[in-house]
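New to this. Explain these tokens.
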Amino acid sequence: MYQDLYKQKLLSAGQAADLIKPGDVLMYATFLGRPVDFDNELAARADELTDVQVYCCGGMPAPIMQTSLMGREHFTCNNWFFGSQDRQRHDQGNMFYCPIQFSQLQDVIADYLIKLDYYVQQVSPMDRYGYFSFGPANTYSFEGCMKADRVILEVNENIPRVPGGSEDAIHISMVDHIIEGSNTPLYELPSTKEANEADQAMARLILEEIEDRSCLQLGIGVLPNLLGELICDAGLKDLGIHTEMYTESMTRLFQEGVATGLYKTTDRGKIAFSFALGSRKTYDFMHQNPLMASHCGRYTNNPQLIALNDRVVAINNVVQVDLFSQICSESAGPRQVSGTGGQLDFITGAWYSKGGKSFLCLTSTYTDKEGEVHSRITPILTPGSIVTTPRTAVDFVVTEYGKVRLKGKPTWERAELLISIAHPRFRDELVREADRLKVWRPTNRNDN
């Protein structure tokens, strides 16, 4: 029965792209769920189309959407999280950022997005019950399907089928058109660069705070992967994982018997996640693995659900922190470079978790294109910088020079603690600036 329905709904990628009309609003799935063949065919029609809007989330250095946003009069992209190519398009003026916390994304789609003509996503092949798995790209997929007037699925045999969770698949009865894609290999994250001394120092500082039965959220990058490796060798037991992004290091945590999830309150015995990025090895590990619980972002990033687990440990990278302890994690001045994502969601969840802790991590300095070294701990945020995490939500801040806990501290003490973990060459200047900004007491320690 389902095979007959499947055949009735089959279109080529070109035929599906031909359905798009000027003024239409489309939504692509997040990260690995973005369509490939459909997008290429839509790009080929650029000269025929005007004022087409594309909503998406997350970019990857892969040949996806490279030509489909070639001119403001043809396509405008609205993006909930930037990757490297997205930043370039943003600089060119044909991509715009949509401020969002991931926990709110589905509600925004359902209640605030006035029009959605098409939702398009790469999915796994249909199973015998008529379901297509969203695989490593859940987040807002089901909500997009519910909101759109028409749903287009691009089947890719390389998409792993991920069982168990919530809103993790769609039935053929809800689908309007099916493309049998060219089975493009899934994007794989490049091998992370070797951890430097600063990364190693921060990882060790955080490791000291992790207890048996902690529930982890790890992000992307060198530090989270390094920390995952250190955790495997630290003798910790029965850790849980409740995260937004499933990463490479989490696979080893399970295989080494460190992450069992036996003492989680939600999804006990499973790894809860919303989307994944990694290697082909990671995607193969996820395929039909009962360990995996693929959930929508409304679930994984809901601070109330996160907080149901004890000893939540949330670890996120930031770009800059000022002496008032305001955190910028998504922009370089006014230039959008990534997004809010789930940082504030997990910081809030960790705060309300019994024994929970959140860590905002940054190297103390960066070097600009001219070779000049700058402090990432600054008197005030660079003008135009976006506050990702307000100072009222900040718990731990970590650099290679130490970790400080700011929750509950007055402004003068926050400034003192932040200066204590700044690079030594900038501390005297920061003290002078703290005094000028009235966040320094005469009795503050001045032995920096």
